[in-house]
UniProtKB/TrEMBL annotation:
<keyword id="KW-0418">Kinase</keyword>
<comment type="pathway">
    <text>Carbohydrate acid metabolism.</text>
</comment>
<keyword id="KW-0808">Transferase</keyword>
<comment type="similarity">
    <text>Belongs to the gluconokinase GntK/GntV family.</text>
</comment>
<dbReference type="Pfam" id="PF13671">
    <property type="entry name" value="AAA_33"/>
</dbReference>
<keyword id="KW-0067">ATP-binding</keyword>
<protein>
    <recommendedName>
        <fullName>Gluconokinase</fullName>
        <ecNumber>2.7.1.12</ecNumber>
    </recommendedName>
</protein>
<dbReference type="InterPro" id="IPR006001">
    <property type="entry name" value="Therm_gnt_kin"/>
</dbReference>
<keyword id="KW-0547">Nucleotide-binding</keyword>
<dbReference type="InterPro" id="IPR027417">
    <property type="entry name" value="P-loop_NTPase"/>
</dbReference>
Length: 173
């Protein structure tokens, strides 16, 4: 049975870049959670309309199913998903050997990074709402917390080292 690692955090933390690099380093399947959104969800977010739980839960179920399918084949999976609320993390982890990597970032750095992105559906106006909704992981949630205000290389190295030590080599598979 494989392991699922969900790279989480608000917009601009580098979830996709870090998750891709992590998946490459540990030989896991990379799953971009944003690619699993419905067209209606994408249109809402592009328009600056925050998703409601009724929009989000069907998407979380799709993300969970994508990870479980890989795990059932004995493959490890790395998924990107903001996972801002504990209830969202619980839905993602249901029936799954799941661990979270929380990329923690300041609001100022998040705004700066989102402003610099080109071609992404998430507008800067949505950053504030993400910080308002964010419920940071608490002890016992199988979460590795990484400060992501550093260079991408530093973050990827830290994530890879800690995932190997705390998840893959710990015997908790």
């Amino acid at each position: 049975m494989g392991v699922s690692i969900i790279v989480m955090g608000v917009s601009g933390t580098g979830k996709s870049t870090v998750a891709r690099a992590l998946a490459d380093r540990i030989g896991a399947v990379f799953i971009e959670g944003d690619d699993l959104h419905s067209q209606a969800n994408l249109e809402k977010m592009e328009s600056g309309i925050p998703l409601k739980d009724s929009d989000r839960y069907p998407w979380l179920q799709i993300c969970n199913r994508a990870m479980r399918e890989q795990n059932a084949q004995g493959k490890d999976a790395v998924l990107t998903c903001s996972s801002l609320k504990k209830a969202y993390r619980d839905a993602l982890a249901e029936d799954c050997n799941a661990y979270f990597v929380y990329l923690k970032i300041s609001k100022e750095e998040s705004l700066k990074r989102v402003n610099q992105r080109v071609g992404h559906f998430m507008p800067t106006s949505m950053v504030e709402s993400q910080f308002e909704v964010l419920e940071e992981p608490e002890p016992g949630e199988h979460t590795i917390i990484i400060e992501s205000d550093r260079s991408l290389d530093q973050v990827v190295e830290d994530v890879s080292r800690r995932v190997r030590r705390n998840v893959l080599d710990s015997g908790e598979r």
